[in-house]
Amino acid sequence: MKKTITLFAVLLISVATLAQTNYEKAMIKNLQAMKDAKTVSDWQDIANGFDRIASTEKEEWLPSYQQAFSYVIISSVETDATKRDKYLDSAQESIDALKGMETDESEVMALQGFLHTMRMLVDPATRGQRYSGLSMAALGKAKKLNPENPRAAYMLAQMAYGQAQFFGSSTDDACNSMNEAIIKFDNFTPKSGMHPNWGRKQAEGILKNCQ
Amino acid sequence: MYFFFVLTVNAQTTISGTVKDKKGESIIGANIYVKGSYDGTSSIDDGAFTFKTDITGKQILVVSFIGYKNNETPIDLSKTTVYNIILEEEINKLTGVLITAGSFQAGDEQRSIVMKPLDIVTTAGATADISGALNTLPGTQTVGETGRLFVRGGESYEAKTFVDGMQVLNEYNATTGNIPSRNRFSPMMFTGTNFSTGGYSAEYGQALSSALVLNTKNEYADTRTDLGLMSIGLDAAHTQVWDKTSLAAKVEYTNLAPYMGIVNQQFDWEKAPESLAGTIAFRQKLSKTGILKLFGTGSTSRFIILKKNIDKGGAKERVDLGNKYLYLNTSYKDIINDKWTYKTGLSYTKNNDDIGIDNSDVDEAQEGLHAKIVFTGDVSNSITLKLGTEYFHREYDFGFRSTSQNVAISFDENIKSAFVEANIFLSNDFVLGTGARIEYSSLVDALSISPRMSLAYKTSEKSQISMAYGKFHQTAQNQYVRVNKNLASEKADHYIVNYEHKGKGQVFRVEGFYKDYHSLVKFDPSLPFTPLSYTNAGDGYAKGFDMFWRDEKTLKNVEYWVSYSFLDTKRNFKDYPELAVPKFFSKHNVSVVYKQFVSKIKSQIGWSYTYASGRPYNNPNEAGFNKSRTPEYHNISLNMTYLWKQNLLIHWSVQNLLGIDNVFGYQYSNQKNDNGVYDRQAVKQGAKRFIFIGVFFTFSKDKDINQLRSI
Predict the structure, then answer these.
(1) pTM above 0.90, yes or no
(2) Which of the four, A45, A74, B163, B700, has the lowest number of CB atoms within 10 Å?
(3) CB within 8 Å of B445: residues ≥ 6 apart
């Protein structure tokens, strides 16, 4: 009897961990694909992958988060400006789906700030005022929720750098902020291989101009 | 131990096929998967897809792609079948075809067609006046001595303003004969503007020609303090933003005395215009989806001018105008369920004009209340419905006191209305709009039903045709109703058709219209105080077309537009002896507006040119009525906005740079002079040129706030 129960328990546990691993496997497969993704269709495929996981794992926030992130990246790769908004709409839909779920709100706000910036870049002349304000507010909230969030830090430094450049004023403050953001990246360990871990390359790219 | 290794050997099933749309075009990048699993793939060239799955039995295949309805097909995984899926377009009411006949939309969103709210501030010649900027659009006539909006052969009273859907009374600051007024609202408060040149929605009424719908900002992002120092006065504003709340308050003091002391004026001011105004905007998120908005503005102003009165032998008349104004507007919107939303609002206007003309005194006061509720929802995937009801209450008081007379008249009006409007999307390329407005006015004492119909059809990816028809009516103006309270409403029927082509960064639009006016107020000028002298026997017509071209692509960092309007209109109304061209008419109106951002000098520069054909005036020395024409109107204006520092902006503008002495008309005396000829005086501009300079600072705890976004 004891042997049967133990076997049964082991079977149950292995079935349970198998199911969990399937989810992890699928997430990590898509995240790996991001490294080589270049075109709109590459990223669309990745977004579709996350969509499939999100429609099954209704309690998990990471699939919708990564789906939103993929759509924001598509809008940056898409060359036709008239198409960018519909990708950003899909990204926003995925972020909105996170309401009511248990998430890392600082990361969600940082992604929202990134989305607002991309929204602005579609038509900076018209949207500059509204969306850079919204982006600033979202990133500020992300920073407040987690002062060590490297993504919020680098995007705020990036905005400050852009403004300093435009006004012809000193970029020293912005560069210092960017250095601090890099240090935050150094100190940051994602909770798992599926958790948000992007932005360092972009931050380093801007830091190059500081030297 | 065997059962550990009993694995059901599942034969993998291959699922393949194609994804296309109704027209047979392949859809690339669609998501195809087995519902409840991760197994799936994306469609590639030719819409083809193929993937393998271990799942068995009867399942559902889901196919989804942006802009299309999700397709769910029952499948049986014990067989290998090829699935050729056809996706149905999702009616996207946000990005689908839009009815544009008679309407110009300006906003921050993708759908903005014509103007951005900032265009109003940066259009040279407009000096941040909403009407001034709208006057550069087709369908408007330049009537410079009033500063108001004259739309397609309609008088300025035929255009009404709404803020967040709520009525605004007396939206122009107080003025008297031939001194231009300005719209009371600052364009920076608004995120979206819908300017109709006719055929507007059944949601609005009581405007014979046009509805200007202004939508205030939904959110304020930064906590900041703004200070403005201008050649005409100063202003200070503070915005405070919390998590769910925002409050913005502004105080403006205007005094033209110092400016008029330096720049020569053609008008003779005893006291230059001076005013003090305050504005408040409050927003509160009451729930996840409900937003409460409160908006209020109040002002007090005064000027004293010495006007030559041709009827008093050229002697000057002293006109002393004082005004007090209060406008409050509150609105609340929320979601009922995933298909329906509602919005409810209340607005209150109180306006007092106190005018002293030499020894006589005119007091005019108007108080108005407006309550409204609107429900908007999706009745089906392709039909949106809007229905609502509203109530207006208005009180008008008029008093005239002179050495010989003492007149006091009052009246009030209650209007109850209900409206319903449906937009039926036959496809993403074809939409039909139909609606009606029912109104009962206590003053007119009659029930009116005004139908509205419109449609829009996309002839190609970048072009569309749109049409609109509607019946409009408006209670007669206060100065006539106060004498004869039994006047019926004035009426107009609109017929509009337009064609629009939108390329990347370019818009071309041509629109033709016909307006049939009837029931206009007529009176006998020799009996101004006799009620029976006022009737609704007047009528008229207005027809024409306008063209618009806007380009922000051809020249780098440059945006320009050209608009042309042709108008043919005649009316037999007011004291006209016959059907004749009205005095505010001009046959051709042209506007060219140019703006360029020069990053080297961190500035936005712009110029504009406005032309209007000569205006009609009546010369009693000659036969016929309104047969004479003034010389043509020309105006070249310039402006520049310079970003000196991150939080410091300098703006200057010159209106009528060349100092052209434009004449808007002639006033003739009502008595012949010694030579048996009627004398006249010209109606001209207040000054040859108007120069404006302003310096604007922004302070904020968050050092990242800057003025760049304000350009």
Answers:
(1) no
(2) B700
(3) none
